[in-house]
Each structure stands twice: as C-alpha cells, then as structure tokens.
Write a structure and sequence with these properties.
Blueprint: E1 2-4, H1 22-49, H2 53-58, H3 64-67, H4 75-96, H5 98-119, H6 131-144, E2 149-152, E3 156-159, H7 160-175, H8 185-201, H9 203-207, H10 210-243, H11 250-260
Helix pairs in contact: 1-4, 4-5, 4-6, 5-6, 5-8, 6-7, 6-8, 7-8
Amino acid sequence: MAPQAGGRVRNIAPMLFGSLPKATKALIYICTGVFLLEFFLKDYLIYYFGLIPLRVIDSFWIWQIVTYIFLHGGFWHFFFNILMLWIFGRIIESALGTKEFLFYFFMCGIGAGIISIVFSFGSPRPIIGASGAIYGLMLAFAMLYPKQIVYLYFVLPVKAWQMVAILVVMELAMSFSTANANVANVAHLGGMFIGYLYFKAMPGAVTGDYAHQVAKFGRLFNKKQKVDDASEIDRILEKISKKGLSSLSAKEKAILDKFSGKS
C-alpha cells in the first residue's frame, strides 16, 4: 500500500530507516525486539501479554489491552505490520508531531482491543498484533491526504480514501466468514473507527490546521489559568486586609511574590 505522488500531499518523509521520525522508529524497534523474544518465550508472552478477553474481564489483566499490540502471530503478520508502520507511521508522525502521533497510535490500538473484547466477551482466545493501530494509521493517512494515490497491495492504484473504503468492505466481509476465524477483523475495523472519532473530534488535523487547533485549546487553558490566578490573588489580599501579612502561609507568600512583579 505504498503511497505515490498525487493529490493532496504534505511533507512526506523519505523512506530511509535513518530518516524515520523517532516515535515510528522506536515502535519498530520494540515490535522487532518482542518478535525476537517470541522465538524463545512465545507461549509465555502470549498468555500474559496477549489480549485474552477472559483474563481482562475475570482477572482484570488490564495491561493486556496495551501489550497485545507488540506481539505478532508469525513472520508475515509481523512483516506486513512493520512495513505498514514504516510507510504510514513516518507520514502521520510528521503531520501530527511525535507526542500526538503516539497518543493517536495507542488510542487506536487500545480502542481496537477494547472493541475486540466487547465482540468476543469472555473468550479465552488470545488476540495479538499491532493491526488495529496500523489500520488507524491508514485511516489517518486517508483523512489527511484523501486524494493521494497509493498502490493497494502494491498492485492496484487507488486514492487513499478509496483504499480505506475497500479495506472496510473487505474486513466487514471477512468478519462474517468462518474461513478467516484467525484474523482479528473486528480489531482492524475498531482501529479505523477510533481513528475516525479522533479526526471528527479534532477537525484541525484534517484541514491541515492542526497546530492552530492545539493552540486554540492552549489559549482556552491559559485563559482559565489566568482566571484561577486572579481569584487566588484576590483571596490572599482579602486575607491580608483582615488578618495581616503574618497570617499568610509560606505557599501564599510565594504566590504573592510570584505575581507581585507582573503587570
């Protein structure tokens, strides 16, 4: 599903591993390290760190909704997830920034895990893999660059939004097929669904004005902070007028000193 030039494209980083953004590179390192450990401790890792709905519900092994992301069920499962992370992770991290990229990646992965638990409630069957988070990244790519041409399965040229539409239809079809019982299609769809909710909640990310969106929330926070600071100063001044300066605590004196030089 490699992206090619065309449509709405912004700052797509080169493919060299050394040029990968740090979060994408770190995720690849972690997934690779865990995959190598699976050669020696596979059953142990899957039992304790794979996502087993029965364990999460009955034993409250809540960490599994995070750790299952880094486990994979064989070489090709690992290879294609890492390849998609390599292709799309660098683009989405460059667009959102490292911190927001990590938030988005784990939000999609954890959300996909929770949705999988809901649809396989009480199942002892483990779910593993970063596919839910990866499908979330593909959804993000389509939201950010809907007209970008990609080669679906490296063969069929389609626009990014068409890629996502095709994948959704395929996953829905396979989710009703017993022939694909080992594929966590619900997790794939869950990752996309959570990603879609994210972009609906943060429209600035889609319009390319993500920095403005973050700044907007920052201004709202600062405004509230200023109101809180003013209220605290008023309270301290009122206390001084009633009980004198000696009545102030060390913390109150520090607050007064902090703001005494501000205009």
